[in-house]
User: Fold these one by one.
Assistant:
Number 1:
Amino acid sequence: MSSTSTSAAAPVTSSRWQQYYQLTKPRVVQLIVFCAVIGMALAVPGLPEGREWLTALAATAGIWLVAGAAAAFNCLIEQQIDAKMKRTAWRATAKGELSRAQTLTFSALLCAVGSAMLWFWVNPLTMWLTFATFVGYAVIYTVILKPMTPQNIVIGGASGAMPPVLGWAAMRGDVGSEAMLMCLIIFLWTPPHFWALALYRTEDYRKAGLPMLPVTHGGEFTRLQIVLYTWILLAATLLPFLTGMSGWIYLVAAIVLGLRFCHYAWRLWKQYSDQLARQTFLFSIWHLSLLFAALLVDHYVQPWIS
Ligand code: HEM
Ligand SMILES: CC(C)=CCC/C(C)=C/CC/C(C)=C/COP(=O)(O)OP(=O)(O)O
């Protein structure tokens, strides 16, 4: 989970295919799809059977394509903003290597193919929820909230939190409370995830004229918010155990990971450095990846040991 694109170094984008591929923000989308797959796994007792495998496969591909389309659409809208920021200036859209028409066509194509897969091979509910998530990120967050308010990523985070709900809907055809709980966890995880990055990229965001929290309210206030969110997140991650959705294996992982995240936030609050902010951001990615992996392991192993 190490990052090159979170640093100033650009990934090598030699071929046109690679340029298009990078527009889909592949690493972010991989974790998004992983969370959707966990939503699918938890929606069925035990392993999927027969046709359920095909549904899960089509749902994974469909959600992947629509999420990639949303990311590419974001690059299209933010072409000029991306050009001003060190972290994003390498993108093919920002450098003018891909035109607006090419990017729009690419995004529309991915969205159409992904939506068709969900409609025909999964179910209409999943298609509509995934499309709403596309609109939530690509339009509501990118076009409206991001340039308007420092709460952009809090409200916009709701769309990034949707993947487990999409996965659940794919297998069950409804929106279960367990899926909503996973959604709540990602929703509360997003602010400390993003603000840790925004702290060591504050100058980038200031230059681009974006009202991110460290730009509008300063580093100290942002760090306090990160501390508060990591505590609330730790409390929320206990809910799957407390509601009987998950067992001891998950609980141990949630407590260890949650305390570690709180510890990072606390150190960031007490003795800030860009390096620590970067480490906190990278840890946030491990935190969510391992927490969701623990949900999965618990789901399959717990029935055998209880
Ligand atoms: C509104 C919500 C979110 C915001 C504003 C946000 C913001 C960011 C930003 C600015 C980066 C750096 C990207 C780069 O330089 O390429 C990043 C990286 C990342 N984000 Fe988020 N994020 C959000 C939600 C999510 C969600 C929901 C997930 C997964 C479930 C996620 C997973 C990741 C991963 C895996 C990376 C590392 C990418 C890499 O290593 O290149 N993010 N995020
Ligand atoms: C259909 C579906 C599941 C859609 C998922 C939507 C999605 C891709 C959410 C991820 C959020 C994300 C990439 C934030 C990056 O923030 P930013 O856009 O502010 O970052 P940037 O400065 O790197 O462009």
Note: Residues 8 and 86 are 6 Å apart (CA to CA).
Number 2:
Amino acid sequence: MVRPALVLPPAPDDRWQLATQMGVTDAVIHTLEIGDGTQFWDYDHLRRICNWFEDAGLSVSVVEGSVPLTDTTRLGLDGRDEEIAAFQQFLRACGDLDIGVVCYDWMAGIRWARTSAHVESRGGSYVTAYENDKMRGGPTHEAASRSREELWENLEYFLERVVPVAEEVGVKLGLHPDDPPREEVRGVPRIINSVDAYDRVLGIYESEHNGVTFCQGNFAAMGVDIPATIHHFGDRINFVHFRDVEGDADEFVETWHDDGPTDMLAAMQAYREVGFDGPMRPDHVPTMAGEQNDNPGYHTKGRLFAIGYMKGLLEQTR
Ligand SMILES: O=C(O)C(=O)C[C@H](O)[C@H](O)CO
């Protein structure tokens, strides 16, 4: 079953209540986006958060991005074995707490990148955009000296050590695409930028626990056919980010969920057809009237709209 989910703060505020009022039961913890930026979780800390959510009628089904994984591991630096051990420990805690999905990414040096967060969209709402020409210049990033093959070797090293633990404890990993899905951003190489790249990742360790976070907006920026690609990955999709963009990996603008180039109904139909059984969250949303745009993509009103839209699509594909 597709379960609409939302990134919620790790302590309650009205966003928890808005979620339950909309019938959302699945919470995503991503404190780098909503919260205090915590990335290193131990069992007790997570237990406390899970209990709190449960008391409010919500369950934590994903920890995303804000996970104990840094460039030490992505770049294969000294200390990666200790970091991987911490990640294994974190997976065990998630398993104990029935947190079914862990979403991570392999973007070294530069996280998800935008060059504008105030592009005017429908009715004066704001969306984010990326223009590669505006990204050039500035100091050379330390990670720019790394080769694509090194990043692959490091990812392989990581997966060989963490997927067996994920299998053992019943947690599914979902690798998020590089955003934007380019060969490089400001000279820093990126590798998770195509369907072929994902095929390579999935082949490194054949297990449903080594899967995909299907961030639709990034696959749209890759220029692929979205429903066909959902069918291509099938049961290796462990988590979905529902959103759309207009443009490509050199230059794009994010769109309202109901106003982008992708046939969202066909996409939802495809998730149904492949039997996707897991959390699906709206990703970046427009900033709407009365919101400050101080956390672009993650304000509340657009997410309420997106959940309603997703639920409508889900009814159409029953
Ligand atoms: O770039 C995006 O679309 C994201 O949502 C970023 C992800 O949250 C993050 O990279 C997950 O590890």
Note: The longest helix spans residues 148-169.
Number 3:
Amino acid sequence: MYEPDTMTPTIPASTSSSLPADWRDLFALTKPRVMSLVIFTGLCGLIAAPERIHPVLAFTAILCIAMGAGGAAALNQWWEADLDAGMKRTSKRPLPQGRLDRTTARDFAGVLCAASVFLMGFAIGWLAAAILAISIIYYAVVYTIWLKPRTPQNIVIGGGAGAFPPLIGWVAATGQISLMPVVLFAIIFFWTPPHFWALALFVKSDYAKVGIPMMPVVAGEKSTRRQILIYAVLLLPLSVVPWWIGGTGAVYGVSAIVLSGLFLALSLRVAVRERTGPDDAMKPEKQLFAYSVIYLFALFAALVVDRFVVL
Ligand code: HEM
Ligand SMILES: CC(C)=CCC/C(C)=C/CC/C(C)=C/COP(=O)(O)OP(=O)(O)O
């Protein structure tokens, strides 16, 4: 396991007492901004699928994805409260700030996760429920507890967790797994390393401080930049596969080429760049991170638009 230089567990002592749970803190525990894209990709998977389900069932399926993903994110923060307290970016979260006690967070997370899987199973189907359960375990246990503190490949392997939502949406609509949702899974899987390492480059010192072996900390900036480029290169043809296999029309295909082309251009700029010093604002890295989020929203929106527009 990667050995940290220093550990700074600085959670206020008040977390051990029982605090009244504020709904805003519980909501924050679900990482709502990250989850907005998780929910969106799940919804797009459901809409892009060739079969329709009743709107109430569709709403229920998306609610289950939101509850499961939010519950897993809450479990992640329950487990990592000490680490979060030591990092500038995460130190304002409810647990490190002592606004919520750990038992409440754990119970809230457990209820959300269990309810999401059972509701999905009873209302939609047990295949979708099983994949939802796998993705929760993947994020909360395989990534958070096992991979994240051990290997710089944590987010490459762990990226699978966040790639499941469109597959779950698709299976909720059709009841089965086919090639298209597997390709959608692969697109998010290959998108995750550039998405995350762009951010990791400019918060590297945070991760180093608490001993998390993120790629820039372990392999260095140069290697991380090169690896970002490799994934962006692979992502371009992969994002066009849905069109190539006849799963979508030209609206999606052309959008994928344009969006992925820009993704590649921004990644290339990050890859060839040398940091100029400690005051370097890392603007290209921040732009790539911001664009990665826009990219995935736009790509999945194109998938849905394509379904309704016939050229
Ligand atoms: C192992 C995989 C991933 C890792 C390690 C990761 C990590 C991160 C981190 C650390 C942030 C900063 C969030 C914050 O400061 O609270 C972030 C932001 C974000 N992530 Fe990811 N991410 C992953 C996968 C995903 C996936 C699969 C999605 C959605 C499909 C996603 C969507 C987002 C969004 C929308 C933001 C921006 C949130 C904001 O506006 O602050 N991420 N990600
Ligand atoms: C349905 C379901 C369970 C979906 C999974 C949702 C999902 C997006 C998983 C990806 C993992 C993720 C957001 C990691 C954030 O990294 P981190 O937790 O290491 O970030 P932090 O340092 O901000 O805590």
Note: The radius of gyration is 20 Å.
